[in-house]
Amino acid sequence: MDPKAEDYVGMSVYTGMGNNPVMLNDPNGDSPILIGAAVGLLTNGIRNVLNDKNFFDNAIQSTITGAIGGAFSPLGGGSLMEDVIWGAVEGGITGGISSKLNGGKFGDGFKKGALIGGVATFAYNLPQAIQNAVDGYGFGTNMGRWNKLIKESVTVDKAAETWIINKDKILQLVKFTKERYSIAINGFLEGDNSKYIFSTDELLLGEYSLVSGVSMTKNGLIHENYHRIYGPKLEGTDIIRGHGTVGYNDSIREAGKYHINFKATALGKGYKFKSPFQNKAWKAYGAKKWLHLIPRRF
């Protein structure tokens, strides 16, 4: 567990080195911002030496730029296109600030940084996208494919308030969720059933979760998965009997990681389902809850 977890509430407490140990070497698990600053300083120093300059020329500027890059590194994710856009914006801002600190124009640095950030993010996601294509899920990131499978699993006619479940897509969704996110689900209950059901082994969710949209489906999966995790430990306690905050607080904390929107996270609301308990947990969570809504890569 990261000892600096409280400083970076948008990241999982079990994530070390920003979930990127190749680029970020952090033996103590202390801070991606400090690691970014160190990388910026070192990179600048090596470039200076190769150009017969003093190692510490522009050290302050490069350290600041590296720290900004480190701060941005957890943010983003989503579909392949969404993450590339995130990478381009992050690279652009970092590049623009770097250019400005070194006497150049922000716009020039932004353009170069955006190009580098977008290309680097695409390259980072490429192996995952190829693997998903090979496995028959289509070319894209895990999050992008997951969202698409959830959408394709149901066809909703809101005017008539009816829907059709695509059972073939459901089977794909169940398989994908187990393989990519280690969330074991058996499937979805048929019929007009809004009740979520969990067991200590695998989950069953009502069709209303699918009908209510992608974010509500993921919210339900995360919520019930934490019940599955905590259930054996809390069996017979008031927490389980009264439902308590088990699952609700967890789905808030994981909202950014799984790209669950405000409507589902704060209101527990979708097209055909609303959870007053989710809203109650949101109100009681504290100020840090807003940071958990920020989309992140891990």
Helix content: 55-70%
Overall number of domains: 2
The helix/strand series, from N terminus to C terminus, equals: HHHHHEEHEEEHHHHHHH
Radius of gyration: 22 Å
Q: Widest sheet: strand order?
A: 3-5-4
Instruction: Quote the average pLDDT.
Output: 79
Q: Major β-sheet, in short? A: 3 strands, mixed
Structural class: mainly alpha
Intertermini distance = 14 Å
Silhouette: elongated
Beta-sheet strand percentage? 5-15%
Low-confidence stretches: 1-29, 192-200, 237-243
Record field, number of beta strands: 5
Number of helices: 13
Blueprint of the fold:
Blueprint lengths: L31 H19 L8 H14 L7 H22 L4 H29 L7 H11 L1 E4 L4 E4 L1 H15 L3 E5 L7 E2 L4 E4 H5 L2 H21 L3 H4 L6 H6 L8 H6 L8 H10 L3 H4 L6
Parallel strand pairs: 3-5
Antiparallel strand pairs: 1-2, 4-5
Helix pairs in contact: 1-2, 2-3, 3-4, 5-6
Task: Explain how this protein is built.
This protein has 298 residues and is mainly alpha-helical. It has two domains: 5-134, no CATH class; 142-289, no CATH class. Helix content is 56%, strand content 6%. The protein has 13 helices and five strands. It has helices at residues 32-50, 59-72, 80-101, 106-134, 142-152, 167-181, 207-211, 214-234, 238-241, 248-253, 262-267, 276-285, 289-292, and strands at 154-157, 162-165, 185-189, 197-198, 203-206. Strands 3-5-4 form a three-stranded mixed β-sheet. Strands 1-2 form a two-stranded antiparallel sheet. A hairpin with a 4-residue loop joins β4 (197-198) and β5 (203-206). α1 (32-50) packs across α2 (59-72) and α5 (142-152) packs antiparallel against α6.
